[in-house]
């Protein structure tokens, strides 16, 4: 499986490769290519397939791309005004902006609309303000409008567009290192595989967990959850205690006799859990006979076997994990000594 490590500073160059393919193939501008790729999660092959299946007009309409920009002649007179249908004010024609769809509103309304969308995290596809208009706003116009009054939001907008190449892309994922090394990994497909970043971290590309081959991701998630939760505590209680038939408290046996007495005063048999009288001898217990097979006894034995099985695998899992941790620490120590010796020479 082909892998490529993408450093943060080269992220734009990697994104531009896919943008260029779509721009050349469909003869569209860069912001239109980006809108299309974000919609199809940067899957160039899927985008091309949909293009030939649905046709240009239908696909562009669904995504929000308007190919033919409307050319509007702006009056040259400084006194000319335009009615903004958002704030319903007459504003000067030189303080309005028009998107590819042809809808024109004043820059103040556009700016407020863009600010809201960026703060809501919708900056990757900011739609036109016009009613039922699906067109995605031109990113250059958006950048120009918001950058004049909100420089920080302009930078945030550019960052969202850049990082969408990873956030919306199934074939590119951030390295899950802590602290983050800043690298991303690009693969040819998103199938189950293990990768190694240039920072040295090995991880599963599918679920971003530590490398767990040959265990499937679903099984690994169940295993890690099992190690985190309290399911084994419940198993221990099931194996080593018996619920009182009266108050249902978990009672642990601390002696050799099978007649147990709960703190609530109820006596019961340790073998079957049935309520009994208080008097007993070495052969029998008053008001009780547990010679019959009890399903609860089978459940307890099953839980006991599961507990032993879990402990068996967990001990080996922990031994391998501790060994890997010690190996990593040893490697770091050797690397530090090597650097010290290298500087000394």
From TrEMBL:
<keyword id="KW-0012">Acyltransferase</keyword>
<keyword id="KW-0808">Transferase</keyword>
<dbReference type="Pfam" id="PF01485">
    <property type="entry name" value="IBR"/>
</dbReference>
<dbReference type="Pfam" id="PF19422">
    <property type="entry name" value="Ariadne"/>
</dbReference>
<dbReference type="InterPro" id="IPR048962">
    <property type="entry name" value="ARIH1-like_UBL"/>
</dbReference>
<dbReference type="Pfam" id="PF22191">
    <property type="entry name" value="IBR_1"/>
</dbReference>
<keyword id="KW-0863">Zinc-finger</keyword>
<dbReference type="InterPro" id="IPR002867">
    <property type="entry name" value="IBR_dom"/>
</dbReference>
<dbReference type="InterPro" id="IPR001841">
    <property type="entry name" value="Znf_RING"/>
</dbReference>
<keyword id="KW-0479">Metal-binding</keyword>
<dbReference type="Pfam" id="PF21235">
    <property type="entry name" value="UBA_ARI1"/>
</dbReference>
<dbReference type="GO" id="GO:0061630">
    <property type="term" value="F:ubiquitin protein ligase activity"/>
</dbReference>
<dbReference type="InterPro" id="IPR044066">
    <property type="entry name" value="TRIAD_supradom"/>
</dbReference>
<dbReference type="GO" id="GO:0008270">
    <property type="term" value="F:zinc ion binding"/>
</dbReference>
<keyword id="KW-0833">Ubl conjugation pathway</keyword>
<protein>
    <recommendedName>
        <fullName>RBR-type E3 ubiquitin transferase</fullName>
        <ecNumber>2.3.2.31</ecNumber>
    </recommendedName>
</protein>
<keyword id="KW-0677">Repeat</keyword>
<dbReference type="InterPro" id="IPR031127">
    <property type="entry name" value="E3_UB_ligase_RBR"/>
</dbReference>
<dbReference type="InterPro" id="IPR045840">
    <property type="entry name" value="Ariadne"/>
</dbReference>
<keyword id="KW-0862">Zinc</keyword>
<comment type="pathway">
    <text>Protein modification; protein ubiquitination.</text>
</comment>
<dbReference type="InterPro" id="IPR013083">
    <property type="entry name" value="Znf_RING/FYVE/PHD"/>
</dbReference>
<comment type="function">
    <text>Might act as an E3 ubiquitin-protein ligase, or as part of E3 complex, which accepts ubiquitin from specific E2 ubiquitin-conjugating enzymes and then transfers it to substrates.</text>
</comment>
<feature type="domain" description="RING-type">
    <location>
        <begin position="84"/>
        <end position="132"/>
    </location>
</feature>
<comment type="similarity">
    <text>Belongs to the RBR family. Ariadne subfamily.</text>
</comment>
<feature type="domain" description="RING-type">
    <location>
        <begin position="80"/>
        <end position="294"/>
    </location>
</feature>
């Amino acid at each position: 499986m082909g892998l490529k490590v993408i450093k943060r500073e080269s992220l734009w160059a990697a994104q531009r490769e896919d943008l260029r393919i779509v721009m050349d193939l469909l003869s569209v501008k860069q912001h239109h290519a980006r809108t299309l790729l974000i919609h199809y999660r940067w899957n160039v092959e899927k985008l091309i397939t949909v293009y030939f299946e649905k046709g240009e007009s239908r696909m562009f309409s669904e995504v929000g791309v308007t190919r033919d920009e409307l050319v509007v002649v702006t009056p040259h007179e400084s006194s000319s005004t335009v009615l903004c249908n958002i704030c319903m004010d007459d504003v000067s024609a030189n303080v309005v902006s028009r998107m590819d769809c042809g809808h024109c509103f004043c820059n103040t309304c556009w700016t407020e609309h863009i600010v809201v969308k960026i703060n809501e995290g919708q900056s990757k596809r900011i739609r036109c303000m016009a009613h039922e208009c699906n067109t995605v706003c031109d990113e250059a116009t958006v950048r120009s409008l918001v950058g004049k009054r909100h420089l920080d939001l302009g930078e945030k907008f550019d960052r969202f567009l850049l990082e969408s190449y990873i956030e919306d892309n199934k074939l590119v994922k951030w390295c899950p290192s802590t602290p983050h090394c800043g690298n991303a990994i690009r693969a040819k497909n998103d199938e189950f595989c293990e990768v190694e970043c240039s920072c040295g971290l090995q991880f599963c590309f599918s679920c971003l967990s530590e490398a767990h081959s040959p265990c499937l991701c679903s099984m690994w998630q169940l295993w890690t959850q099992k190690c985190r939760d309290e399911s084994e505590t419940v198993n221990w209680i099931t194996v080593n205690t018996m619920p009182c038939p009266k108050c249902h408290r978990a009672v642990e046996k601390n002696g050799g006799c099978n007649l147990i007495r709960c703190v609530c005063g109820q006596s019961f048999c340790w073998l079957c859990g049935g309520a009994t009288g208080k008097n007993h001898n070495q052969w029998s217990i008053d008001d009780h006979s547990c010679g019959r097979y009890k399903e609860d006894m089978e459940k307890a034995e099953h839980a006991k076997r599961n507990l032993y099985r879990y402990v068996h695998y967990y001990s080996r899992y922990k031994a391998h994990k501790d060994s890997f941790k010690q190996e990593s620490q040893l490697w770091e120590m050797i690397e530090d000594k090597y650097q010290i010796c290298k500087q000394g020479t």
